[in-house]
Design a protein that fits this description.
With about 550 residues, the chain is mostly helical. About 45% of the residues lie in helices and about 5% in strands. It is built from 22 helices and 3 strands. The chain has a 3-stranded antiparallel beta sheet, covered by helices on one side. Helix 12 (about 270-285) packs across helix 13 and helix 12 (about 270-285) packs across helix 14. The longest helix is centred in the middle third of the chain and has 19 residues, at about 210-230.
């Protein structure tokens, strides 16, 4: 690997010339050198001219790769990977830049508070016991300034043989919390994702054997096919045209640079993504379709490579995420409030700077929270990020099976059509949000954890961070990933004097270009410190600092 004046890096690996394509080679090099994407470098190979001189020839296609293999005098092929300078103007989509008016009034919301579950948090306790109690060693292992050694994950990705150690002789998953902790530390091998992701997305009810899981997915896939064939029975012509048109518009610009979605507009994979999202919108009229859902469904479909299985997994994911897309915006308002509190506790000086520059609301992070950072990393890196983030959540399997449809619109809704929405905008007024009657709020009603109020006055004591089951509406690790991403760019932001609009443009220029290893390394260290410190209060909602006058952790 050659990058400007930096010393070259070397890697060695074995491939089979009979099955290794140029695209496969690109992905191998991305992993080997921890590169942003396959578009961030060029490849050349060492060849020998007739006069015996050594020369590097460009390698840009399968044909070039075949020539490189055929010209080998021995079994060793030497490649040169040249890093391209970063581009300043990537392709942006028309909703990437979020302005304050898009999330206006979020601080005015006072949704109904969610009651706390009395059950223990086994995954959190596992992370605390295995990570928090050895915090100094964890921080050393996760150090983001220790070079290549520090960039390695705790463990290699979970493989098939190790995965089977979490199953009993009947194929039942017997250690779900330990499985999630293992994935949190190392991710999953790509070939195993379509199996493991179904557990992470809480698709399976507890206790299914291997054969029962196969029968379950077969039955749910057939159920999906039935739903897909009944579009016109679920919606009028006007609604169907509106929903399908909006879905198609987004599908045609979602992850098209990835080989799975490349090709003509009527390719099978694009049709599958369109049909999946249209079916979900028509079968969940209270949610319908919102921009951003295509980004959630896209990696699931690419991994499952089966439309019916992908729909079931998407429904499993949306059990947790659909609140993000509700028109009252209550769930997003809570996440913004918690993220602001976290930034202020972690780096008060940076928080004060953002406030002075009109960016203290952090609304430029809207896409991060809505899509759980999927859009900030190259596609393959996003897959690893998603599985690690999902594994930080406690298991939440369905009691019976994942529902593939949602409740109908209320009879008094005043509208017969639930069409797609361009953006999720928080309500300007309502007390407690507008959808408490939904009865869908698994894990609590809208606004769980909203009891944490910010105290903006300088010098005032800060309230404790919420406990993990409330923080970020039950997804605390996502907030630490966002914090980590902000801190990665802190010096450039402050040094450049960036205001809100400049911050939005800065991070839009870096779409799909963030450094996964650095961001997750820092986030895990900060998250471990949060779990170890137990800075959350025992009486949520009182807004009091920790008992005994404890000094809040700096998370730095």
């Amino acid at each position: 690997r050659c990058e400007g004046p930096l010393p070259p890096e070397f890697r060695s690996f074995a491939v089979d010339p009979q099955i290794t394509s140029f695209e496969v080679l690109q992905h191998i090099l991305v992993r080997a050198f921890d590169l942003i994407s396959k578009n961030s470098f060029s490849i050349s190979y060492l060849a020998h001219e007739k006069a015996g001189q050594e020369v590097y020839l460009s390698l840009q296609s399968d044909w070039d790769l075949e020539m490189a293999f055929s010209g080998l005098a021995n079994s060793h092929l030497q490649l040169r990977v040249d890093i391209k300078p970063s581009e300043d103007s990537p392709l942006l989509e028309d909703w990437d830049i979020i302005s304050p008016k898009d999330v206006i009034g979020s601080d005015l919301l006072t949704p109904e508070k969610r009651s706390l579950a009395a059950s223990p948090l086994p995954l959190t306790q596992s992370i605390i016991s295995q990570v928090g109690r050895t915090l100094s060693r964890v921080q050393q292992a996760l150090s983001w300034s220790s070079g290549e050694e520090g960039s390695r994950p705790f463990k290699p990705p979970l493989g098939d043989a190790e995965f089977h150690t979490f199953l009993n002789h009947q194929g039942q998953l017997c250690r779900p919390e330990e499985l999630r902790l293992r994935i949190y530390h190392g991710g999953v091998e790509p070939a195993l994702r379509k199996v493991v992701w179904r557990y992470l997305l809480n698709v399976y009810p507890d206790g299914l054997t291997g054969q029962e899981r196969m029968d379950y997915m077969k039955r749910k896939s057939a159920e999906y096919e039935g739903l897909r064939l009944t579009w016109r029975g679920r919606a009028g012509a006007e609604e169907l045209e509106l929903v399908s048109g909006m879905v198609q518009k987004d599908v045609l610009r979602t992850d098209r640079a990835h080989p799975y979605y490349a090709g003509p507009e009527d390719s099978p994979h694009l049709r599958a993504l369109r049909d999946l999202l249209t079916t979900y919108a028509l079968c969940h009229p209270r949610v319908s379709y919102c921009q951003g859902m295509s980004d959630i469904a896209s990696p699931i479909l690419a991994v499952m490579d089966n439309e019916g299985h992908a729909y079931v997994c998407f429904c499993g994911a949306m059990r947790r995420l659909e609140a993000n897309f509700r028109p009252d915006g209550a769930a997003m308002a809570v996440k913004f409030r918690h993220l602001r509190l976290l930034v202020r506790r972690a780096d008060p000086a940076f928080h004060a700077y953002l406030r002075r520059r009109g960016a203290g609301d952090l609304f430029f992070c809207y896409r991060w929270l809505l899509l759980e950072l999927k859009r900030e990393f190259a596609f393959e890196d996003a897959l690893r990020l998603l599985e690690v983030a999902w594994s930080s959540l406690p298991p939440d399997p369905p009691l019976d099976e994942v529902p593939l449809t949602g409740p109908p619109l209320p009879l008094d809704s005043g509208a017969g059509v639930s069409g797609p929405r361009l953006m999720v905008r928080p309500s300007l007024g309502g007390e407690g949000g507008g959808d408490e009657e939904d009865g869908e709020g698994e894990g609590g009603e809208e606004g769980g954890g909203d009891e944490v109020e910010e105290q903006e006055g300088e010098g005032e004591s800060l309230p404790p961070l919420p406990p993990p089951q409330e923080f970020g509406r039950g997804n605390p690790f996502l907030l630490f990933l966002c914090l980590s991403l902000l801190l990665e760019h802190r010096e450039r932001i402050v040094g450049g004097g960036m205001d809100h609009d400049e911050l939005a443009m800065h991070f839009d220029r870096l779409v799909r270009k963030q450094d996964l290893a650095r961001v997750t390394r820092r986030a895990k260290a900060l998250f471990a410190e949060y779990l170890q410190s137990e800075v959350w209060g025992s009486s949520p909602g009182e807004g009091e600092p920790p008992a005994g006058g404890e000094t809040p952790p700096s998370f730095s």
